[in-house]
Structure formats: structure tokens, C-alpha cells
Specification:
By secondary structure, this protein is an alpha/beta fold. The chain has helices spanning 2-34, 39-62, 65-93, 99-124, 136-165, 182-189, 208-215, 234-240, 265-273, 275-287, 314-322, 355-366, 391-398, 528-541, 563-599; strands at residues 195-200, 223-228, 247-252, 255-260, 291-296, 325-330, 341-347, 370-374, 401-404, 407-409, 426-429, 431-432, 450-453, 457-460, 467-473, 478-481, 494-495, 498-504, 510-514. The chain folds into four domains: 2-165, no CATH class; 182-283, Glutaredoxin; 289-561, Rossmann fold (3-Layer(aba) Sandwich); 563-600.
């Protein structure tokens, strides 16, 4: 009982001394931060500090030899804190006299206060302040660990401070331009005579090396590259009609096409990413005949001027312009299509087509016309559409193409977007046929995936006079979700369903039919395969398959997030990484324990 009472008295005395010291520090901190510092408050703080230190020194003087190391440690951490306070007071004295002295003293003050505080928390957290139980080696271990943490934090704070004071930017967001693409190289290779390219940049421009690297990918016998600085070559600038540096001009006879890159890397970054597309556009406008595409526009179709991202095809129209296609509105199908029409396009109609309009399309195809159709299973009923009165599906059936409005789903491989079952109708596919409409995408099926959202599908008649080719099909485990529950029910057969059909008649009429108009929307045309399939389809319809090929670009594209891949990442972050941390921790602890046993 006597021993227990002594221990409690001992602990109580130690708590009082610690409370006195902590209270004095708190008073000093509060008064300084609030601006209420006065001689009285400072005197109280000093009195409390001195009292607590005298008590600790008295304990040290009369303590037994095994306990003296602990008291020395306590006196040391408190002295370090007080030293930091003294440095702080000195820094305030030199605040106006010398900025360098003030900064040096302030940094040393913060370092001392940080070291002392972390060291003190480590020692004071020991049971009964530890000296009755802990050996000097254990106290030293605590001291080493706390000081290591303190110095680590000081180092990190110093690095952060230096980084903030010496801030500078390293632009690593873009380090290369788009390279010469397949379509551009093919177009250059077909040139009958060399074409001149005037490249106007400042001689010291950071952009010029990227331009040289791009044009190095072409046949030099077909391109006559001329590098000039407008300020040093005014005659050539006048010939190419260049107003400033940072421009590239493609010149053939008296015709020229100019596009802007920018002479400074800051302004050129975005244009460098689409350098190949810009050059190809200029090249085709000089060397090819424009092809006119008439888009029907009186049935609620998707167009390029307006609409939400999933109902606008502005990006598609921009890509077509780059290939020298001219997009026009067709405001009536009650008369024959204009004579200059190369392709008639019907994209995502919401309203039905009449018999008279379908008759116009039939006459057009019988003359060898070209038709591009993209349907949508979400044809809105609230706008007055009666599917039974829509003659367009019946017209396609006359070609041997029956459109199924059941959404194609896949419960194993799909795009994770909404994170619910509806994602199963957001599908992708790399099942491409050997056909010109998918010639470029089919070269790399392991990297190219065509994406569609809530797509229908097709059934093909076996006795059609048209040559029908399913050029894109869904993955093999897909199913038609006839009841809309996103589940593969017993009556919903799994299989690979046609998503895009290419058809050709004996009269050389050609038709491409999409089962999902959304695949041409601004949202999904960011997908590389969607771009390639759409553009190759238009090339095939326009008899320009020799231009087929990818257009190189460094622009950001839509990233496909597969559910299976997302699941792997999820469980990897939830289980794998924590288990790895636990394993490393257990290994380190076991190694430390073995080292301690060897030391004993």
C-alpha cells in the first residue's frame, strides 16, 4: 500500500510540473498570437518556466542513478523549447532592422520549437512519464525516433519553403507534335508533281524543331520544303503571302492553303497536336475535288449547328471538312436530290419518312447514288412518331436489312459510366470485317474499339440482291435486351450482332447503315475507332478509299473504362495495397525484434 501511495504521489508531482510548463507555453502562445502580449503576461510565463525547471532540476539532483537519464531528457526537451522562445523574441527585435537576421532567427526558432515539442510529446506520453518503468535504452530509443521525425518534418518544411520562394515552371505537358499520319503520307505519295511547302518561323523558335521533325516523315521527292524567317526573307513572305511567323503555306501553281501554328510554344501547343490534320486538310483542298454530302434536316436529325453533346455531330462535320467534304442541309426529299450530291446522309431522325421521300431515295440509289444512314432506338415517341408509319425501316428491309430496336447489352464487358446496370448497354467492340469501311480500324483491332450507347442491331436477309456485309459486330457474349432489365434472360440469345452494315447493289449504289446514331455524336466521336470507321465509311461511299488511313493526333481522347478493369483497380486499391503495407510493416518489426534479441 505504501509503495502504491508513493507512486501516486510521485506521478501527481510530475503532472503538476508538466502542467506548469505546458500552461506557461500556452499563455505565451495565445498572448503573442492575439497581440495581447504585455510585461505582466511575459513575467508570468517566465515565472512558470523557471518554477517547472527548478522542480525538474531538484528531481534530477535527488533521483537514483537509473532515473537520472530520464530527468536529463525532460530538462533537455524543455530547454530546447525555451531556446526557441528566446530566438523568437530576438527575431522580433530585428524584424525592422535586418530582414536577413529576422528570417534566420525565425527559422531557427521554428526549428527549435518543433524539435522540442515532438521530443516532449514522445517522452510525456510514456506511462507515469516512464521513469519508473523504462530503462535508459528505451528512453533513448524514444528520443531517437522523435528526433528523427522532427528533423524529417523540418526538412520537408524547408523544401516546401524553398520551392515556394524559388518557384519556376517546367512545361512537361507536351513534348511532341503529331507525327506524319498514314492518310497524309498516302496523299503525298499520290502527287503527280512535287508541291511547295513554305514554313515561316523565327530562326530561334522553340516550335521549329517540332515542325522539322513532322515533315521528315514524308517523301522528300514529293514535297519541296522551304524554311524561312519572315523578317529575314521578305521576298518569300510576299510570294507565299505570309503576314507573320508561325504559319505554314502549301502552294500548288497559283493556289495556296495556309494554316496557323504559332511561333511561340505557348500559342503553338494546341495546334501542334493537330498538325497532321491541318496539313492533310490543306493538302486535300489543293489536290482533290470537294465532295458534297447532303444531310437531311426536316425529321429531327442530328446536325452540327445545335444539340446536346449526344445529339450534335459538330466534331464529325469538322473531321469531314478536314477531308475536303462539304456538308450541306437537304431541306426536302419530295424532289430529286441535287445533281452535285455525292452522298445523302440521314443521321438520327426523330420523325418518320413518307413514301414520297423514300421513293426519291430509291431513284437516287438506282442511279448509283450513295446513302449513309444512322438510326436511333430512342426515337422519341412524345414528338409524335408512329413507327408503323415510318417508311425508312421498311425501305431498309427492301434492301435485306431489318432493324431491331432492342438494345444490345453485354453484362461481362462494357463501359463503366453511370456505375449501375444501365452501363451494360454502353458497349464496345473490336470485331471488324475485311472491308474498306473499316480498313484503318481493322489494322489494329487490339487497340481500336468502336463504342456505342444504347444501340440497336440488324438482321440480314439471305436472298437480297444487294451485297450485304456486317462490317462491325458486337462482342460474342452480347444479347438483345428485349425487356429492358439489363439481364441476359433465357429467351435472350447471346451472340455477335451486326452493328454497322455496308451494302452494294449491282447498279453500284452503296449504303452504309449504323444501328446507333450516338456513335457519331460529339461525345463518342472522341473515340479513335469511331472516327476511323465513320471517315472510312464516307471515303468508301465517295470512291476515295485510296485516301484511307489514320490521321495522327496528340489530342486527348475519350478513355474506355472497362468494368472488369475497374474491378481490378478497385480491389487492388482496397486489398492489395493495404496488405502490402502490412507485410512490409510486419517484416520490419520482425527484423527489429531479432536485432533486439541479438543485442540482449
Amino acid at each position: 500500500m505504501g509503495y502504491s501511495r508513493t507512486r501516486r504521489t510521485e506521478a501527481k508531482g510530475m503532472n503538476v510540473r508538466f502542467i506548469l510548463f505546458a500552461l506557461s507555453c500556452l499563455i505565451f502562445f495565445v498572448t503573442e498570437r492575439s497581440g495581447l502580449s504585455s510585461t505582466t503576461s511575459f513575467t508570468i510565463c517566465v515565472a512558470l518556466w523557471v518554477t517547472s525547471l527548478l522542480f525538474e532540476y531538484r528531481e534530477l539532483k535527488y533521483a537514483s542513478p537509473p532515473h537520472r537519464f530520464y530527468f536529463r531528457s525532460v530538462l533537455s526537451y524543455r530547454s530546447v523549447i525555451l531556446f526557441g522562445v528566446i530566438l523568437y523574441l530576438l527575431s522580433q527585435t530585428f524584424a525592422e532592422a535586418s530582414a536577413k537576421i529576422y528570417m534566420s532567427l525565425a527559422v531557427l526558432s521554428l526549428a527549435s520549437l518543433g524539435i522540442g515539442t515532438i521530443w516532449g510529446v514522445s517522452l510525456e506520453s510514456l506511462p507515469y512519464r516512464g521513469y519508473s518503468y523504462k530503462s535508459p535504452s528505451e528512453i533513448m530509443s524514444k528520443t531517437r525516433s522523435s528526433l528523427s521525425l522532427a528533423f524529417l518534418l523540418i526538412t520537408l518544411a524547408s523544401i516546401n519553403y524553398i520551392a515556394a520562394r524559388k518557384d519556376f515552371k517546367i512545361d512537361a505537358s507536351f513534348l511532341k507534335a503529331s507525327q506524319a499520319g498514314e492518310a497524309s503520307r498516302k496523299t503525298v505519295a499520290r502527287l503527280e508533281k512535287p508541291i511547295r511547302v513554305g514554313v515561316f518561323f523565327n530562326r530561334e523558335s522553340e516550335v521549329l524543331p517540332f515542325i522539322r521533325d513532322y515533315f521528315d516523315g514524308f517523301d522528300k521527292t514529293k514535297l519541296k520544303l522551304e524554311y524561312y524567317d519572315k523578317d529575314f526573307n521578305p521576298t518569300q513572305a510576299e510570294e507565299f503571302r505570309v503576314a507573320r511567323n508561325g504559319q505554314i503555306v502549301v502552294l500548288q501553281d497559283e493556289k495556296r492553303q495556309r494554316f496557323e501554328i504559332g511561333d511561340k510554344i505557348e500559342e503553338a501547343r494546341r495546334n501542334l497536336r493537330t498538325l497532321d490534320a491541318s496539313f492533310l486538310k490543306a493538302l486535300l483542298q489543293l489536290t482533290s475535288v470537294p465532295a458534297t454530302i447532303y444531310f437531311t434536316s426536316t425529321h429531327g436529325e442530328m446536325l452540327w449547328e445545335t444539340g446536346s453533346p449526344v445529339r450534335s455531330m459538330a466534331l464529325f462535320e469538322e473531321l469531314l471538312r478536314g477531308l475536303n467534304f462539304k456538308s450541306r442541309r437537304l431541306t426536302s426529299l419530295f424532289q430529286d436530290v441535287p445533281a452535285e450530291t455525292k452522298i445523302v446522309a440521314i443521321v438520327g431522325p426523330l420523325n418518320g419518312f413518307t413514301e414520297e421521300e423514300i421513293a426519291t431515295l430509291s431513284r437516287y440509289l438506282q442511279k448509283g447514288g450513295r446513302l449513309f444512314v444512322a438510326l436511333d432506338i430512342d426515337q422519341a415517341s412524345e414528338v409524335g412518331v408512329n413507327r408503323s408509319l415510318d417508311e425508312l425501316p421498311k425501305f431498309l428491309e427492301s434492301l435485306g436489312i431489318r432493324y431491331s430496336t432492342d438494345a444490345v447489352a453485354n453484362d461481362q464487358r462494357f463501359v463503366a459510366a453511370a456505375r449501375d446496370k444501365s452501363d451494360r448497354t454502353f458497349i464496345f467492340s473490336n470485331v471488324f470485317a475485311n472491308h474498306p469501311t473499316v480498313a484503318t480500324a481493322g489494322l489494329s483491332p487490339e487497340r481500336m474499339t468502336f463504342m456505342s450507347h444504347r444501340t440497336g442491331s440488324f438482321d440480314l436477309a439471305g436472298n437480297s440482291r444487294w451485297l450485304l456485309t456486317p462490317v462491325v459486330k458486337s462482342l460474342a457474349e452480347s444479347f438483345r435486351d428485349s425487356n429492358g432489365n439489363f439481364e441476359a434472360d433465357a429467351n435472350e440469345k447471346r451472340g455477335s450482332y451486326p452493328l454497322i452494315i455496308a451494302a452494294e447493289s449491282p447498279e453500284k449504289g452503296r449504303v452504309v447503315v449504323y444501328s446507333d446514331a450516338t456513335a457519331l455524336s460529339n461525345t463518342l466521336m472522341k473515340v479513335a475507332a469511331n472516327q476511323l470507321v465513320a471517315l472510312d465509311s464516307m471515303r468508301w461511299l465517295a470512291d476515295r478509299t485510296e485516301e484511307a488511313g489514320a490521321v495522327a493526333s496528340e489530342e486527348d481522347v475519350l478513355i474506355r473504362q472497362e468494368k472488369s478493369r475497374e474491378t481490378l483497380v478497385f480491389y487492388g486499391s482496397i486489398f492489395a495495397m493495404p496488405l502490402l503495407v502490412l507485410f512490409v510493416g510486419a517484416w520490419a518489426t520482425r527484423r527489429r525484434s531479432k536485432s533486439a534479441e541479438k543485442g540482449i
